[in-house]
Design goal:
Blueprint lengths: L36 E4 L16 H13 L4 E3 L7 H13 L6 E7 L2 H14 L3 E8 L2 H7 L3 H17 L4 E6 L6 H14 L3 E6 L6 H18 L4 E6 L6 H11 L3 E4 L13 H10 L10 H12 L16 E2 L2 H12 L3 H4 L16 E2 L7 H10 L6 H13 L6 H9 L2
Parallel strand pairs: 1-2, 1-8, 2-3, 3-4, 4-5, 5-6, 6-7, 7-8, 9-10
Helix pairs in contact: 1-2, 1-10, 2-3, 5-6, 6-7, 7-8, 11-13, 14-15
Length: 417
């Protein structure tokens, strides 16, 4: 474990703001963001991953508690029409959330038969549950399904009006928004807003959008809301089929989305969704949020175990390799920073993400690219006397290895004769 000493500042010590020149903000005018909310889709869209398993109810409850501790505002806890088991889990989770700040929503087709069970859950639990009523919006989807657009408008209006009549807060969701025609989007959203929807959701269901396309469609939808003079929130729900999920979500926020959807580790349908963990990391580093994210690693590990989706070693921030180095030059810089008694410096000198912000720490190992500083660090960590002979034996062993040495192998090599 790295130390937590505070460095002694002297007249020659540079101020921290002068140690890193931030090109990310060098030519960017500061902008005030409205409060950004987060909707966690891990327990709905995340479970639609072909590789995911449905977690136990106990693990779902633990995940919801972690979401709450991370400052996530809402969580989609499933599709009530999917099965009796889904309904049972949803009801239990809604009851559990009564003592938390996070609130529940559920996904339903724009069919009264899908939405009616939500009213029953609300009656049983006494807790509000937001209905996310979805309908496909793109021409390709309409053609494949043989849908009539006038009937789509009718179903959308009836679904939202039913929610209003039952006292259910509602969000109207257009699937495949990023491939839909502007005039039809205007008609769908206007119908839903006039029927009483309190939020509307722009979806990149197929992971089609680029950041430019995301800004264009969210700006267009925002203009509809502005023209109607409606007090309606705008959500963004993005997939990462082109690897653009995270950057598109940031673009959607800049264009006017005020609630952002994501899942733990980006799990979800096909290649998945925007990564909730990485979204929170980036918004924390950008200064958009100040949430306590010290339990974000625990959230990732629990999600990985509960859904049975491995956490890759090279996954940003929370993978095993994220803050571990065995490269001599890198390790030397970290160790020299620690020698100054400065953990802040050690966590940033060779890392664009400060480990300490997220309850993590730097790790120095020994491998084929290591130097004396790596070996010295590991030996001192274990209270082993550092001699030239011991260091040479470990380096010789490391240079012959195709991988990093375990700490036991380092200690054994140092002790050998």
């Amino acid at each position: 474990m790295l130390g937590t000493e505070t460095p002694t500042m002297t007249e020659s010590t540079p101020s921290r703001e002068h140690l890193i020149y931030d090109w990310n903000t060098a030519n960017v005018e500061p902008s005030a963001h409205p409060k950004i909310q987060f909707d966690d889709e891990t327990l709905r869209d995340g479970l639609q991953s072909p590789s995911a398993v449905d977690p136990s109810l106990e693990d779902k409850i633990r995940l919801v508690h972690l979401m709450d501790e991370l400052g996530i505002d809402t969580a989609d806890v499933g599709l009530p029409g999917a099965s009796p088991k889904a309904r049972e889990h949803i009801t239990t989770l809604v009851k559990e959330m009564a003592s938390l700040n996070i609130t529940a929503n559920v996904a339903c087709r724009t069919l009264i038969g899908d939405i009616a069970p939500v009213a029953e859950v609300v009656q049983e639990t006494g807790q509000a549950v937001e209905v996310c009523a979805f309908i496909g919006s793109s021409p390709i989807r309409q053609y494949a399904e043989s849908w009539d657009f006038d009937k789509m408008l009718k179903l959308s209006r009836e679904a939202i009006e039913f929610c209003v009549a039952e006292g259910l807060p509602s969000m109207f969701v257009t699937e495949d928004t990023t491939r839909a025609q502007p005039d039809q989007l205007r008609a769908l959203y206007t119908t839903a807003i006039e029927a009483g929807a309190k939020r509307i959701c722009v979806c990149d269901t197929c992971g089609h959008a680029t950041p430019e396309g995301t800004r264009a469609v969210v700006s267009f939808v925002k203009s509809i809301v502005d023209e109607l003079g409606a007090d309606v929130g705008i959500d963004w729900h993005g997939h990462r089929d082109r690897g653009l999920g995270l950057i598109n979500t940031l673009a959607a926020m800049e264009a006017g989305a005020t609630r952002l959807h994501a899942t733990a580790l980006g799990v979800g349908e096909r290649t998945g969704n925007t990564e909730m963990d990485l979204l929170l990391v980036n918004l924390r580093l950008l200064g958009v949020i100040d949430n306590d994210l010290s339990k974000l690693g625990e959230y990732c590990r629990l999600a990985s175990e509960a859904i049975d989706i491995p956490l890759p070693h090279n996954y940003p921030v929370f993978g095993g390799d994220a803050f571990e180095t065995a490269t001599g030059v890198h390790a030397s810089a970290v160790i020299k920073s620690l020698a100054k008694g400065d953990t802040w410096l050690a966590n940033r000198v060779y890392s664009g993400v400060p480990a300490d912000l997220f309850g993590l720490e730097q790790s120095i190992q020994v491998g084929p690219m290591s130097g004396r500083s790596n070996v010295t660090w590991v030996l001192q960590k274990h209270g082993v006397e550092v001699t030239d002979e011991a260091v040479a034996r470990v380096i010789s062993k490391a240079k012959e290895s195709p991988r990093l040495l375990t700490e036991d192998e380092v200690l054994a090599a140092a002790a050998s004769r």
